[in-house]
Amino acid sequence: MSLPPLNERAQHLLKALVERYISEGVPVGSRTLSQATPFSLSPATIRNVMADLEAMGLIHAPHTSAGRVPTIQGYRLFINQLLTMRSLDEGQVDFLSGELRQASSSRQQLIETASQMLSHLTRFAGLVTLPRREHARLTQIEFVPLSGRRVLAILVMDDGEVQNRVLPVSRDYSGNELRKYSALLSEQLAGQEASRVRETLLAEMDKVRSDLNTLMREAIQLTEQALDAATPEPDLVISGQSNLVGLEDMSNLARMKRLFEAFETKRDILHLLDQSERAEGVQIFIGGESGYDPLEGCSLIAAPYHEQGRVVGYLGVIGPTRMPYDRVIPLVDITARLLGAAMSPTLESEL
Amino acid sequence: MSLPPLNERAQHLLKALVERYISEGVPVGSRTLSQATPFSLSPATIRNVMADLEAMGLIHAPHTSAGRVPTIQGYRLFINQLLTMRSLDEGQVDFLSGELRQASSSRQQLIETASQMLSHLTRFAGLVTLPRREHARLTQIEFVPLSGRRVLAILVMDDGEVQNRVLPVSRDYSGNELRKYSALLSEQLAGQEASRVRETLLAEMDKVRSDLNTLMREAIQLTEQALDAATPEPDLVISGQSNLVGLEDMSNLARMKRLFEAFETKRDILHLLDQSERAEGVQIFIGGESGYDPLEGCSLIAAPYHEQGRVVGYLGVIGPTRMPYDRVIPLVDITARLLGAAMSPTLESEL
DNA sequence: TTTGGCACTCTCACGCCACGAGTGCCAGCC
DNA sequence: GGCTGGCACTCGTGGCGTGAGAGTGCCAAA
Fold first, then answer.
1. Once rounded to an integer, what is the mean pLDDT over residues A228-232?
2. Which of A25, A101, A105, A98 is CA-nearest to residue A67?
């Protein structure tokens, strides 16, 4: 609670303790710590310091005669002030960027690869949100006749994203007829941000009503329907969930179940990721810090990724709170950068 | 091993035993069984029969003084010969078909809904393979220019499926130019089965070479690329995995981990589903029967679903071997039918 | 062929105990 | 004043033995 300056020795001991706990997974006692620390201090002295740290709420003893374990506040302080990052293995970076480059022909592929890489390189679960399409502009609208009074509507965005929906319609349309609508609307709407298309359409409908231009009205109606169906469905790709099964720290089955339910719902995790909006760099949620229950015992390391200089999504890793932050944080950071780079194609001529 | 006729009484007892074990999850002893069976037989008699059943490999005693538990062979016989199906709750069927109808505007939605329904109604994990596109016919090809030497290729199938890929190209193309290619190729290829398009293209290229029709060659090259990228990627939608976490029967963590890894790999499960090809109806794999390890302790209930009278995919449920087959089997069956119906739109006028 | 009886086996839960690890505190030392 | 060694105390863990309960196999009688 109270945070007096916390002298240097205490900081070093806290750091050593957290590092030790992260690597060993066992509550660490004064004797152990006295051996692992550069100032050679006796266990007794260390006990005194530990008592202080405990009073400050930074560490905690599971029971009377166990060593100490960092509390969430302890982790927080460790990460904010004491953590020394480990630079990434160069081979890993090469591997990562290679895989991303290879997947760059399809947006979906790219996202999935990034997610898999995150999980693979950390041995935890990797998350990547699909990029937001808010600012994408419409370039083309196509209608294709299907059998049985159905029309396929295809919306093409300027960034190569394609949305399509099958629309039930009240009568049969010929291919020619639909082609006319397509051309008409593409011309009318091309270059508009998708989010603003609806307004334009409504305005257009008003105009048209007076003209009684049936063809145009049909087309507009179809487009309205297509847009309706093409709701943005913000989505999240999760990989490597199985890495979390049977992790010592996840021993609690009920907790694990809640975590996996959260993975299926996705919604709450998405929401949590969105929260890190303001922050530019890597964001860290430790345990239930976020107020989001299912993550108890876990930490979420997240970072936004950019396309054309604009934040379009987030990616990250979920693992046990006791994770090697010094490796994971840089990895999430670099992955976000590489994914952004892969999505904003400059002239990287391949072929 | 040897399967002598197995007299009626033994059958009834086996049936009662399996049912009891499925509902209670505890090895069932002779006393329990003597109470639960219509012929009132003494426990001693039942013990004799049970000894026979054990000799036949149909049941098994975890240890000397525990009751008996069905073996895989026991389950098999139970399912093949003794099981009496329970008819579905009408509310469930209504719910199921309602949800499917509601999702029928998009193929992807439909598959996901079916999978979710399966998991939701069984409380286990639901699986649905994406429909095979083998026999789909191409109706249209579109090329759309993107920024930075990229072209978006869109392939539209006659069933409303849309595939799209971003292609890196070696020079810039104008919209008009691409539109010409699109028209040309759409005309050339429309109505072809996607799987045969490649042949046609190759033949076409030969013809064209002699004509030196550059435009056509460009177009063909683009299409080739698009087809290359649009590999069928047979995929599987899995829902409700979290239902399996913490299920008593799944107590073995290592096993559960393997199961979840299988869920992520998907490939092997897909392969397993494909195996049920020949069978028209519901197929059941009990435990590791399939020779596929990660399913040990689990059963897979699967059925093919049809579109326009043709098998295009499979769906099913994975749960503990000790599952209520009498409910799950009919559910998988009806879900397959309903999904098929939802995908083969006849005149079900809604709207 | 079925049944009651009986001895046997095995698991499970419980209590007990000794062990080890680690602590808190205190008195003495630098 | 801060550091240290010593000491008593606490608590979780694992091994062991025991008793209860469940269920079996077998045998002899109906």
1. 57
2. A25
pLDDT in tens, A194-203: 777 777 877 7
Which residues 222-251 on chain A approach chain B with CB closer than 8 angstroms?
229, 239-242, 245-246
Output the pTM of the full model: 0.87
Average pLDDT, chain B: 85
Q: Which of B101, B124, B164 to mutate to test the interface with A (most CBs of A within 10 A)?
A: B164
Amino acid identity, position B194: A
Residue whose C-alpha is closest to residue A137's, from A99, A191, A73: A191
User: Is A344 touching B (CB cutoff 8 A)?
Assistant: no
What are the pLDDT digits (tens) for A75-113? 999 999 999 999 999 999 999 999 999 887 778 889 999
Find residue A256's DSSP bridge partners: none
Q: Which residues pair with B60 in a beta bridge?
A: B69
CA–CA dist A152, A168 (Å, integer): 9
Disruptive mutation site among A242, A257, A259, A269 for chain B (greatest number of B CBs within 10 Å):
A242
Residue at B233: amino acid letter = E
Cα-to-chain-centroid distance, residue B171: 43
Which nucleotide is the nearest neighbour of A39, by CA and C1'? D3
Tokens of A258: 């809640």
Residue B5 reports pLDDT greater than 70: no
Residues in chain A within 8 Å Cβ distance of B186: none
Please state the three-class secondary structure of B9-38 as a single string.
Answer: HHHHHHHHHHHHHHHHCCCECHHHHHHHCC
Rounded Cα gap, residues A65 and A44, in angstroms: 15
Chain D bases closer than 7 angstroms to a protein Cβ = 3-6, 9-12, 21-27
Calculate mean pLDDT across residues A331-345. Answer: 91
Q: How confident is residue A348, by pLDDT bands cut at 50, 70 and 90?
A: very low
Could you tell me the distance in Å between the CA of residue B45 and the C1' of nucleotide C1?
Answer: 9
3-state helix, strand, coil in chain B (%, to 5): 50, 20, 30
Instruction: Answer whether A347 touches B (CB < 8 Å).
Output: yes
Q: Beta carbon of B297 within 7 Å of strand D? A: no
Q: Which member of A150, A156, A351 has the closest CB to residue B170?
A: A351
Calpha distance A293→B18 (Å, rounded): 39
Asked if pLDDT for residue A31 goes beyond 50, the answer is yes
